[in-house]
TrEMBL record:
GO MF, one annotated term: oxidoreductase activity
Record protein name field: FAD-binding oxidoreductase
Residue ranges crossing the lipid bilayer per the database entry: none
Organism of origin: Candidatus Dormiibacter inghamiae
Domain FAD dependent oxidoreductase: 2-311
Family annotation (InterPro entries): FAD-dep_OxRdtase, FAD/NAD-bd_sf
Record-level GO cellular component terms: cytoplasm
Length: 339
């Protein structure tokens, strides 16, 4: 038996991948109700515009899953529009563009007002845009993965604590998101995962905001936003519960959206590691594996990571080499595009 501890997108992706490789003894256990963890609170952005070969490869390998289920998960390739909002961000975006283009990404450098006329762009030092990027509904991705994994033979148990039988399985995989450090400690392994609260503010609806609006992301400040059902979802650095600094950013960059009060607000937890890359592979304890610490990229990269980790678990050659993501790595991974 293979026990997966955690039924978010990471755990459901792995259950699906294992079941499709013929394992009919996969059990997913989660102490939370379905879709109430970090997955259900995610912004829902997908991008291939990363700053390392590894992360670009993971996105390219995951993207077919999203594209093939576009209607079911509301995946729309609206693109990510990166804004160089500081003098230092201009050369940085140019360097990213060179790397990304070398990997075959169709990077463009449009005037942002051609994509969103309401944006203030006179102070920008450049832009990067890729139409392969997009948005989706995270809860629907999780529902889709769970449905497909169940159809292939995996079993899910939500609002359930792992039993002794579960923990005595041939292989146990920790996919517990922000709780992975505690879960790992209970199994005698050290996983450097720390929760980080992030807040999402919802404003609108706005008549001028169209479904094809790209995700906006300031490369310098880190503020970004996306359209969802005529509303704007906004996330940024600093206090995740403080609207005022988000409002001030909108007032500077997208004035029509700088309303006095948001329509809605919620927070979720990023599962952060020291180098903002996930921990994937075998741990220091035989039979205990990890697939956690995605640092905000869990929904986006789980399909690809799960395919390769499932191959490793059943003794096959993985489609992607996940060795750099080993939980036992001693050298930090670097990617300047990590948020």
């Amino acid at each position: 038996m293979i026990t997966i501890l955690g039924g978010g997108v990471a755990g459901a992706s792995l259950a699906r991948a294992l079941a499709l490789r013929g394992r009919r003894d996969v059990v997913v256990v989660d102490h939370c109700p379905f879709a109430t963890g970090s997955t259900g609170k995610a912004l829902g952005g997908f991008r291939v515009q990363h700053g390392s070969t590894l992360n670009i490869s993971l996105s390219l390998a995951s993207r077919p899953y999203f594209a093939a289920r576009a209607d079911r998960i509301e995946f729309a390739p609206v693109g990510y529009l990166y804004l160089a909002d500081t003098a230092a961000a201009g050369p940085e975006l140019a360097a990213r563009s060179e790397l990304q283009t070398a990997h075959g990404l169709p990077i463009q450098h449009p005037d942002p007002r051609t994509l969103l006329p309401e944006i203030v762009a006179d102070d920008l030092f450049g832009t990067n845009y890729c139409a392969w990027d997009g948005v989706y509904l995270p809860a629907k991705v999780l529902a889709c993965l769970r449905e497909e994994a169940t159809a292939a033979g995996a079993r899910f148990h939500y609002e359930t604590e792992a039993s002794r039988e579960d923990l005595a399985a041939e292989e146990v995989v920790i996919c517990a998101g922000s709780w992975s450090r505690q879960v790992g400690a209970s199994l005698g392994v050290d996983l450097g995962v720390t929760p980080l609260e992030r807040g999402v503010f919802q404003v609108g609806p706005f008549d001028w905001l169209k479904p094809q609006t790209p995700v906006l992301l300031e490369a310098g400040s880190g503020y970004h936003c996306r359209e969802r059902q005529g509303r704007l979802l906004v996330i940024g650095p600093g206090d995740p519960n403080a609207w005022e600094h988000h409002r001030q950013w909108l007032e500077r960059r997208l004035p029509p959206a700088a309303v006095e009060r948001p329509e809605d607000h919620w927070t979720g937890l990023y599962e952060m590691t020291k180098d903002h890359h996930p921990l994937v592979g075998s741990t220091e304890r035989e039979g205990v594996w990890a697939m956690c610490g995605f640092s905000g990229h869990g929904v986006m990269h789980s399909p690809a990571v799960a395919e390769s980790l499932a191959a490793m678990l059943v003794g096959d050659t993985p489609p992607l080499d996940l060795t750099p993501l080993s939980p036992l790595r001693t050298q930090p991974l670097l990617d300047g595009t990590q948020l």
